[in-house]
Amino acid sequence: xxxxxxxxxxxxxxxxxxxxxxxxxxxxxxxxxxxxxxxxxxxxxxxxxxxxxxxxxxxxxxxxxxxxxxxxxxxxxxxxxxxxxxxxxxxxxxxxxxxxxxxxxxxxxxxxxxxxxxxxxxxxxxxxxxxxxxxxxxxxxxxxxxxxxxxxxxxxxxxxxxxxxxxxxxxxxxxxxxxxxxxxxxxxxxxxxxxxxxxxxxxxxxxxxxxxxxxxxxxxxxxxxxxxxxxxxxxxxxxxxxxxxxxxxxxxxxxxxxxxxxxxxxxxxxxxxxxxxxxxxxxxxxxxxxxxxxxxxxxxxxxxx
Length: 305
What we know:
Layout: H1 23-53, H2 61-64, H3 67-84, H4 95-111, H5 118-146, H6 152-176, H7 193-216, H8 224-232, H9 239-249, H10 253-283, H11 292-302
């Protein structure tokens, strides 16, 4: 039975409860971030071209990709607040969330190449992005929960390494699987089989990397005082929303300044992600009108009009 704990209580534990970990232990706890970022990279690099395979118009791409910012806006703070207030004697505090998120991602990545209609691909993207955000948000706090102050920079650097590794491998997979001769053919929906291979590999990486971290890393249990406080706390469905509002009200001035900066930054990034494939296709490869057979060998890397 899961029970609620005070927000941030484990983070506030004395460093004596957080013994120094070896480099291998820090790597083990961050391996799961590799699978999460592989999934995110496939979403950024391959979803729009698949939409185009299924008949999407260029002007519809931003709306079809709206799942990303909406789920990030809603799910990340809610899951973050929920994981702050969760403790399970077997599964811990953060691990249940990135395990559930990884299962959602793996299922969606496996099913995505089988999309036979645009509505199916759009629906899978919403579930995929919800799973990505469910897994990612508690993972960021996992480092602070587990590592003492001296080792936290190492933990976050390791997490950054797996971020780059997952993103890079996902992008390369879309090219490398093309080198296998029998994968040059395409399905009835015009999606090449090397796309299937990339998504299947991503589904495996998503769940396998999370399972590795979950099985090799134990979370720090609450102290007796924290356990008593958790039993006395009235935690319900509305608690995460209340805590989010309280956190916004208590935001220091520097955080409000960062809010303004990030708002404009992510506005630009959304425009970039929505149209980078089509822009590269037109400006770098001069692709405007392509034959169907060219679709099956080029579009996922460069997009088309």
